[in-house]
């Protein structure tokens, strides 16, 4: 049976946010690049990123010339995004061009609260964000976006194509005894399309992208996966030490002779229209 996986309450939140930014977030770069290439993100793009995390996807869009707005419910990740996109000028250092960026805690603003031109693209590219939490944000984002503009949703591909899926099953198994729920976009064939339709959007194509998870050592692999928040309910149901121990054991088959850890994964994305 497919486990449901979700970001639960965080422990050691500051460390987790930094581990996400420095270890785990870069694993999704092939997904970001594929989406931006397909939709020709550039200087005319006004992008709204839902669940923008520590801002790597926004930074990549900004490097293409796009104006970016990001929102996220995690204040610590958002602070790291602010460091990347809106750094404070350093005294005596050469002036840097500031990105056309806005960052906001929580979800998208209501139309009455927002001034300026509407967005031309919306993305929700964090597969750890659960569908039931994302749905109202998608509906709100659609009201802020030009008619006909793309909205891109991403999730895990088929379980048989995602080596990390077997590792994530540890989180579901450990969380289950106390009734904790662990949910993420571990996608069935039409899950993303159904999410789009529920938000009033029209599906208009899809794609798959190889996103291998590669780490220099076992410690980095454990820290990176814990930073997703998907193991937090397991830690609440058992204890942190047990989760780390069983996670390392589940990763053992993917450890190479040189000590590196690598898991092959495929992610799926859907393009919908407002």
UniProtKB/TrEMBL annotation:
This is Methyltransferase domain-containing protein. GO terms for biological process: methylation. Gene3D superfamilies: Vaccinia Virus protein VP39 (3.40.50.150). Keywords: Methyltransferase, Transferase. Residues 48-88 form the Methyltransferase type domain. Pfam families: Methyltransf_11. The lineage of its organism: Bacteria, Bacillati, Actinomycetota, Actinomycetes, Kitasatosporales. GO terms for molecular function: methyltransferase activity. InterPro entries: Methyltransf_11, SAM-dependent_MTases_sf.
